[in-house]
Amino acid sequence: MWFKNLRVYRLTKEFALTSEKLNELLEPHAFVPCGSQDAARYGWVAPLGRHGSELVHAANGYLMVCAKKQEKVIPAAVVNEKVEELAQAISEKEARQVGRKERQNLKDEVLLEMRPKAFARSRLQYAYIAPKDGWVVVDASSASAAEELLENLREAISSLAVVPLAAKNLPQQTMTHWLSAPEAPAQFEFGHECELRDPKDSGSVIRCKNQDLCAEEIHNHLVAGLQVHKLGLVWRGGVEFLVDDQLSLKRVKFGDELIEKADSADTENAAQRFDADFSVMTLEISALLTDLLAAFGGANTDTASVEEIVARASRAEAEQTAREVEEVVF
């Protein structure tokens, strides 16, 4: 359950739902396995898995949810081979070429035939809402996976005003300054990995792994004008991660002391162990993100969420309509 990736979204409105109410809203959207002709299904499951039934796990004011996505696996090569066989048969029988549109129809027919017998592949996506911290944290390696979870969560609860977490200072410039000094920010140490890019040439990338980031070789690249877009850091000696220019954290590794801290809790079953892990992890992530944001100059709160932008547009439209009506009346 320990998160390996952190994609953080800032709540732009207070999240007022209790765990009970959130669970109630998620229940109609609970996961249902793929039917014979479904290509994919997405829904909510209990974070505790077989050890729990609730769709929301709450601890210390944090609300964890878990989404499950199931997809039918049909290899593209197998589909293309079957389509080619059918197209060839038509060409030989009718002495004509099979066009692009007809090939697409053949492909749809092949998929329709293969889908009921295809294997189903499932994956779980965890996230938690931190109302008191003002953010949502998703364990996702890609932005698209995180956005998919948030979109389904928004659909289930009707409203979720969030924006990707942003800092006041540009991350790439700040990280470049740290490494050029070289001096890591307070509470942090440099790790052994970074990615450098040329701001004038997006295709020019240098990736360093298992390297001394304070070495002269890396310093020379920075003097030449390259900027740091990904940087390995160690927080308080206990959490290792790679932060990028979007403030997303990847390859997060919690230290043995933290794992042992959770394991040392007096637990009697799997549910209690999960609760102990969740409590320790969320508290550590909260402190980590607070220190990280401070290192980047604080959170940028000027960015509006999609819901706020739509609301502003609606208010502006209503005000414009009212003015037009007033002009007609007077």
Automatic annotation (TrEMBL):
It is found in: Cytoplasm, Nucleoid. GO terms for molecular function: double-stranded DNA binding. GO terms for cellular component: bacterial nucleoid; cytoplasm. InterPro entries: RdgC. It comes from the Bacteria. Pfam families: RdgC (PF04381). Keywords: Cytoplasm, DNA recombination. GO terms for biological process: DNA recombination; regulation of DNA recombination. May be involved in recombination. Belongs to the RdgC family. PANTHER family: RECOMBINATION-ASSOCIATED PROTEIN RDGC. This is Recombination-associated protein RdgC. It comes from Microbulbifer marinus.
